[in-house]
Amino acid sequence: MADDLYRSALKARMARLPDLPPWETGARAEGEGDGDVPGTGGEGEDEEMDEEEDDEDGVGELPSLNTLPRLTHRTRTPVDYSPLSAAGYFEQSLSLSLPSRGLDTRLYYTPPLVRAGGRGTVIVAHHGAGSGALSFALFAREVRVQSEGECGVLAADCRGHGKTASTTGSTGDLLLSQSDLSSDLLALLTTLFPSPGEAPSLVLVGHSMGASVVLGALPQLLKEGYGVTGVAVLDVVEGTALEALPHMRSLLLTRPKGFPSLEAAIAWHVTNNTLRNLQSARISVPALFVRNPTAAEGAGVQWVWRAPLEKTEPFWEGWFTSLSSRFLSAPSARLLLLAGTERLDKPLMIGQMQGKFQLVVLPGVGHHLQEDDPAAAARVVLEFWRRNERVGVGVKKVGER
Amino acid sequence: MDGEPSTSATSNANNWRFAQCFGDKGEVDDITEADIISTVEFDHTGDYLATGDKGGRVVLFERNDSKKGCEYKFYTEFQSHEPEFDYLKSLEIEEKINRIKWCKRQNSAHFLLSTNDKTIKLWKVFEKSLKVVSENNLTDGTRPVPPPTISTNLRLPRMTQHDTIVAAVPRKVYANAHAYHINSISINSDGETYISADDLRVNLWNLNISDQSFNIVDIKPANMEELTEVITAAEFHPIHCNLFMYSSSKGTIKLADMRESALCDRHAKLFEEEDDPSNRSFFSEIISSISDVKFSKDGRYILSRDYLSLKIWDVNMDRGPVKTIQIHDHLRGKLCDLYENDCIFDKFECTWSGDGQSVLTGSYQNYFHIYDVNTTNDIVLQADKSAFKAKKIGAGAKPGMKNGAKPGVKDGVNIDAMDFNKKILHGSWHPRENTIAIAATNNLFIFAVDR
Known about the structure:
The complex is a heterodimer of chains A (401) and B (451).
Chain A (H helix, E strand, L loop, with lengths): L3 H12 L76 E7 L4 E8 L10 E6 L10 H10 L4 E6 L8 E2 L2 H5 L4 H15 L8 E7 L1 H16 L3 E7 L3 H16 L4 E2 L2 H10 L6 H7 L4 E3 L11 E3 L7 H8 L2 H6 L4 E7 L6 H8 L4 E5 L6 H4 L1 H16 L12
Parallel strand pairs in A: 3-4, 3-6, 6-7, 7-11, 11-12
Antiparallel strand pairs in A: 1-2, 2-4, 2-5, 8-10, 9-10
Chain B lengths: L15 E7 L14 E6 L5 E6 L3 E7 L8 E8 L4 E3 L4 E3 L5 E4 L7 E6 L4 E16 L22 E17 L7 E6 L5 E6 L2 E6 L2 E10 L12 E6 L6 E6 L4 E5 L11 E3 L12 H4 L4 E4 L5 E5 L3 E6 L8 E4 L8 H6 L9 E3 L5 E5 L4 E6 L5 E5 L2 H9 L32 E4 L5 E6 L2 E7 L2
Antiparallel strand pairs in B: 1-30, 2-3, 3-4, 4-5, 6-7, 8-9, 9-10, 10-11, 12-13, 13-14, 14-15, 16-17, 17-18, 18-19, 20-21, 21-22, 22-23, 24-25, 25-26, 26-27, 28-29, 29-30
């Protein structure tokens, strides 16, 4: 059209106009500030969240220019980085003693609603290296809301992480091989649910290193008679992880050794995009730090990393080697949930073409996808569970021997 | 304008009457897009009328002098432009005829320039007599004849006139000179050169040379992201062959003198009216964009059309227009809706009458306005089916006249029910009479003043 040039120049100019407060369209879908939680709005918000509200000042009489590009709203209220309690996300916080493993495990649990005659289902989530059980806090609440309580969630701080303490001190903390961690998980589950016949059916979810742990524990769990509906791996691909290992060390060197306050620690995680969800960061990051024993009173680095990842370097390769083959041969339903940019390695690609697992890619999330978009992660895992759970008696489930 | 208000025949609404309508007079809903008329132009004598449509066809009408009144008949039609594809940019080039301009008649053939978005063509339209062999050695025209036996009886074949057809031949094709869409062409008074203007550039051509043109105006910014202004129309002065003007989307008209320099980026005169700051709104810039600009026949005045008004400028005074006429000011409150349905970008043309006493421009719902330049008396007429119904009845009152005020109707126009799909964008005024040709979507209306 003859006046396309003029019109496109006009629209380009309008797109460069400065940000304005959003039109009062009724729905407050527009104008999410940094840190607004997608999927907020469930019940049971015990904490009064100081999240960024849209500036819903009256914009007054403005023409209904629906064809104008939507102008995003930059929040001008200061961002709150203060730590948040996990109360309201998990129902219970327990400390479980596992003498056979020399651990005092901190775990967080939301029990499932058990229907008459049923056993219920629990999603057992294992976090990754350097992370903590509270990285599943938002995920747990989403699961409870979306499944209407039918699915429970169990997440524990593993050895050397979070609030879990080893009875043998720092030596115990560093027994981080895959087999040790898998045995820890096994011990935890057999202690919590002593009778396999009456235990709820399990959905195993492992994030990053946690996937390796979960896959290692799976065969033994099945052997002991526990019902495992499926196993979900969050954002880890063996090939990519192994290739990234050499870079991990230099990456860890660039991390600060500690922070003067928990707020600073939370802010650091959010501003360098490790975690994209501020609310989740406020819950999960504090558990990653312990007070610096050598710090001066009131000044300097007060908080240091609970699990210094540099020390775990000897175990890295063991976590990820043969992860793909173990996943593909896992005797249960399989789900691989990836953040946008991951690529599959050769065994996984072949496996996917052979239909051996379900692949879901979540857009717009970082490596900690259960924290960045807990609603989407919960939805995918619940759907995976529902599809593989409701199978009639006598019909073998996928992967079942 | 010259002191005494003249009581021209055109200022009396009763004198205008519907004369003819060409085209498929069906409902607007199912018209073929290719039939939509995109330009109308009388030639310099007024005996011929050219229309171009979206399908790239040019249709010519000839004045029927045998009839007493004003009547045109179909003369010829030819396909001027074909749709093309620009392979380099992966863009379609529409075949829609944007402008037609007649050359001054020099012999029995007609020459006219027609242009689409990218290519200008010079067409020669002439009457070709077809001759047929009437007598040869085997027939004498009616019955076969035995072939001659003696060589002296051999005769040459004789031709007689069989038929006359009107043929149209492209004489020159002026291609590949414009990177943007051509919006106007204008032939110089010297009859040898013409200018073509696109969104950012104006080129000067010689009618005889089709492979070269000079660029005389270039407003392309170094960084296309900073584009704020485009050229919307350009025209040569009717008398001075060195002067031309071009209008822009920012509401400015620049008069340039080609004697000054080869590149006429610096204007000799700038016609711009300061915006009334109290009236400024989000749309002020869009509605100030000049959609058409025309010199009067004597070259003393400039007529410009922006979205809501007509402005008449004295060429000698660039301070401000000598007259501003509001066409449909009631649309000022509806600019948001007009922006949403894109009507705010409609380009209305404007025309002078042959005597320079009246101006013509179109509006929505097929209404068009004829203003007397001196008294700014407004005649509103409508180019649609009601026009020929009125003719049948022979009624004097026309719909939409100012004098016949009906309740809920402002200036003869019912605002809320306005159909923005029916608009009069193109029109032309006979150079010597008060006859106008109006393009209403796919129909051509001819209105004339009673003699």
